[in-house]
Design goal:
The chain contains 14 helices and 2 strands; from the N terminus they run H-H-H-H-H-H-H-H-E-E-H-H-H-H-H-H. It is mostly helical. The chain has 2 domains: about 110 residues, DNA polymerase, domain 1 (Orthogonal Bundle), CATH 1.10.150.130; about 180 residues, hpI Integrase, Chain A (Orthogonal Bundle), CATH 1.10.443.
């Protein structure tokens, strides 16, 4: 079927696109909210640029270039700064997804490949730690207290499994019932609902399992979440992603680390540790829950750089 020229402005397709993301694509609520936020800025730019009623087939490469300049040079964040290249790309990726949605419905529009992303240095896309830095962070919490034991367990689980923070905070205590076998040498498998509501398997190391077991033994309450906020006075005791981010940042500072550390830093460290020790890219892709191996390839630059450093340091023919 040949694409047809729509008589509706491109902005009229944003709501159907978001509904499509929810119903047909099964994207998470968080991803849907992000797409909505990113496309709101595109609508704002259309209005300010004098194109509030632009039709899908009228969107041109020149429009895209002007929008990219707007993202890079004019739009300010809430803090008053400019968008990083990484943040600019989030807005452009959302626009790409909208164009793909139109094309799938045989509506004539600019091909999504014409929306070029801002180039980033590979080093800027990933922050990871050495394993010795992880060990320093793990020693920070006071594990004689319920809160400290919880925090140590969270970091052990993040580094052991490579989970996303959203996946970790969604865990319920009854999902860890398999730890009751008291094995000290077993690597456990756990099925979780990952990004995009896709079920995937994660692995919990024997050491992380020991900490989880010790933490669960201290739980005498009847609350459902695995990790709870002990100071919360509300009925919902589930620990928030923000609380975990603050805890990990604090542990990194107290451990004497100079770089900014987030829960995703531990996920990056998990991936680079696997690759650095010989794991193949496809296996790491599955362990991280990436749907596309291209997403996992961001780590190859780091492992390749390490190999180059080894070559330069130890190979006699470099002098």
């Amino acid at each position: 079927m040949r694409p047809v020229k729509s008589t509706e402005p491109i902005t009229e397709y944003i709501l159907p696109f978001l509904e499509y993301c929810e119903i047909e694509k099964g994207l998470s609520n968080n991803t849907q909210r992000n797409y909505e936020q990113y496309l709101k800025l595109f609508v704002k730019w259309l209005r300010e640029a004098g194109h509030p009623s632009l039709l899908p087939h009228q969107l041109s490469a020149e429009h895209i270039w002007d929008y990219r300049l707007y993202l890079a040079r004019k739009h300010r964040t809430h803090s008053g700064g400019y968008l990083s290249k990484k943040s600019q790309n989030y807005y452009l990726i959302a626009l790409r997804a909208l164009l793909d949605f139109l094309a799938e419905r045989d509506i004539e529009c600019l091909p999504s490949v014409k929306v070029k992303l801002a180039k980033q240095k590979d080093e800027e896309t990933i922050t990871f730690l050495e394993v010795r830095d992880i060990e320093k962070m793990l020693k920070v919490p006071d594990v004689t207290s319920p809160t400290g034991l919880r925090d140590r367990t969270i970091m052990e689980l993040l580094f052991s499994s490579g989970m996303r923070i959203s996946e970790l905070t969604a865990l319920n205590i009854d999902q860890l019932s398999m730890l009751e076998d008291n094995s000290t040498t077993r690597t456990y498998e756990l099925s979780i609902v990952g990004k995009g509501k896709h079920v995937r398997t994660i692995f919990i190391s024997p050491r992380a399992a020991l900490w989880l077991r010790d933490y669960i033994k201290t739980r005498t309450d009847v609350h459902t979440p695995l990790f709870i906020n002990y100071s919360s006075r509300t009925e919902n005791k589930r620990l928030s992603p923000r609380s975990i981010e603050q805890t990990i940042s604090r542990c990194a500072i107290l451990a004497g680390l100079s770089k900014k550390v987030t829960p995703h830093t531990l996920r990056h460290t998990y991936a680079t540790d696997l690759l650095g020790n010989g794991a193949d890219l496809r296996s790491v892709q599955e362990l991280l829950g990436h749907r596309n191996v291209a997403t996992t390839q961001i780590y190859t630059h780091l492992t390749n750089k390490r190999l180059r450093d080894v070559h330069e340091k130890f190979h006699g023919g470099t002098q």
